[in-house]
Amino acid sequence: MAGTTSPSTGGATRRSLLAGSAAALAAALTGCDSASPPATRQSTDDAKAPVVTGHKPKGKDVIDVVADFGAKGDGRTDDSRAFARAYAYAARRVWDHVGRTVIDVPAGTYLIRSPNALLDARGGKLKANGLRFRGAGKRMTQLLFAPRRADNAYLCRNEDSWANVMFEQMGFAAATPGASFFYSYSTGQAQDYRFTECEWTGEWTYGVALDGSNTNSEMRWDACRVGGAYRKAFLYSGLSQKSLSRPQQDQFLNYWFNDMKVEYAWGNFLEFPYGGSITCRGGSYIVTGRRPDDSGDYGRTSTFFRFPRGPHHDSVQRFHAEDIRFEVRDPDTVVIDCAWDSGTVHFNDCDDTAQAFKSFAQDSSPHRYRVGAQGPLVRYDSCQLSGQHAYAAESGGSGPRARYDMCRFRNHAQQDFIKGSADRVSFVDCLGS
């Protein structure tokens, strides 16, 4: 994201960093030029080199919550204190704003009752880059989060403190229904999270809740399973929905989901009242049940991709889904509900027809858009689609804003596939039922 602050460069912007990198590359390529004296080149390079202050902290670079901090991992003993001590050890070993510790969590089931026990970075006083939690494998390392009260209880809390946080091969379960996994607040520091081969089960309010303004970006999920249920959403952008600067609030960008198994009972997968440059590639997405009660915000619907707010800052409205198999098991399952007033939405080689044979499918609308004068521009390429797609036209503008190219419609002929503003849609080489 051009123009945002990097947490490890003393306020330099990403543009300035890229410019500096380009200058360094140019210097390297011209280093054999005899017109530039070696002594001059050396002194110039030295002047630009970062100065590392202080001393490398003592202690082990890799710690074990069982061997080093006494966690039991038996599923019955409260291991909150062991995890809190492990995190405190890692925080103390930050040197020159860089983390130096890997926290290993061996195979076992760890009961955690205290909020923030896994990561407790409240207040934004620590500015650090690099923290890694490493499990023994999905379904082998399990963390049961069982706070006594679910309201505002998070297993991890990062308030403008850590960038580059990694979780690998671990499972997280909400043993207290309505607890939440991760609260991330940023005004320029919290960013670059990685989740690899992780799993979430149980009933959560939020999986990852983003708040504040500026960054909370560059987050990636690889080969993870999102199970359980979500009263709000697995990933929610812009928790407070307010900021002193709306353009800064919208700087929640660049989220990648690769080869995912999204298979949860009810709730929303991604909900973005703010921000959003989002890419989802590969995997299977299924809502297996229905909400147990009507929700004031959602009714009975469960939505994979919910973008409920129209106005946004420029360049933060982009969604791409590719090579995904969706299962729409009942009429309350929605693939996308988008109210963006600009930007782009693109589905490529996706299929949501697994349940197209069911009686409800013909009248269902699993893809829903509100389209204004500036869009969003919507495109479907080589997709197989069930039900009808709904388009509501906002005031202003005319002509197509959506295009279907070489798609197959399972429940309707092409002329009946669009519900609502069909004049906003065009078709190229498509097949109807």
UniProtKB/TrEMBL annotation:
Domain Rhamnogalacturonase A/B/Epimerase-like pectate lyase: 66-155
Start and end residues of each stretch annotated as Disordered: 33-55
InterPro entries named in the record: Pectin_lyas_fold (IPR012334), Pectin_lyase_fold/virulence (IPR011050), RHGA/B-epi-like_pectate_lyase (IPR024535), TAT_signal (IPR006311)
Pfam families from the UniProt entry: Pect-lyase_RHGA_epim
Protein name: Rhamnogalacturonase A/B/Epimerase-like pectate lyase domain-containing protein
